[in-house]
Amino acid sequence: MTYDEQIRMLLNKVKADDLTSEPLPGMTQERYFSLIEDCERNGYISTFMRQIVFRYMGGGELADGIALTKKGHDFLDNKDRNQTIPLTQQFHIQTVSNSNFGNHGTINNNYGIQIDDLLKFIEKNVDVSDQAQARELIETIQHETELKPGVLKRFDTLLEKYPGLSSNVGNLVMTFLTSGAV
Length: 182
Known about the structure:
Elements: H1 3-15, H2 29-41, E1 45-46, E2 53-56, E3 59-62, E4 67-68, H3 70-76, H4 115-125, H5 128-143, H6 156-161, H7 163-179
Antiparallel strand pairs: 1-4, 2-3
Helix pairs in contact: 1-3, 4-5, 4-7
């Protein structure tokens, strides 16, 4: 029996005013009490008492006046399930910028970054001792005429040391590759 089925069975017992301290079939007393407390935490049941389960060695008792809440009724009626959202597919065929395929709703590719923004980031977030190498990295990206594997290899330690720089450099490369200018 799944967790939801156990909750459904327990809520039906509350609805029928038949909830007792006896656990559901195949369930330990402790698990049963925990399930009742889960129902209270989820807002499916409530009581006027401060505590819904009173445990003692070898067992426990339930508070008086346990009632099914509106949320509990909705759970039993499957109204708590997320409503399915109609799927639409959007195909944007022109530029790659801000395009997506599939049932993903709206995707914003906010990778556009300008050199000036990246230089400000370097001044603010990169140690003074590493700033010259960071500027050299940007110059390499600006002046590299051919994108080839390993072109930024000498900067790998710098990029590992500053994850924000790595992210912004990736954005700069994407801006360059999608627009042709940085």
